[in-house]
Specification:
Helix content: 25-40%
Structural class: alpha+beta
Low-confidence stretches: none
Number of helices: 2
């Protein structure tokens, strides 16, 4: 997504203020590859409990659930 990092940062910043018990990514967040490091770093910026649902596109391009 062309503005994915900006949108993710807005979400994480809002969650830091709201301080929910946990946040959940509902999948198709991004492949675990170098181009997505910025996005993953933003996601990791929330220091509370985080959950991640693996969706169909998370295992595209040879990536596995592991």
């Amino acid at each position: 997504m062309y503005d994915g990092a900006r949108r993710a940062k807005l979400f994480i910043d809002a969650m830091k203020l709201k301080n929910p018990e946990f946040i959940i990514s509902l999948g198709d967040f991004g492949f675990p590859k170098a181009e997505n490091k910025e996005l993953m770093d933003i996601w990791s910026g929330f220091t509370g409990e985080r959950h991640f649902v693996i969706c169909n596109h998370n295992t595209d391009a040879g990536f596995t659930k592991k």
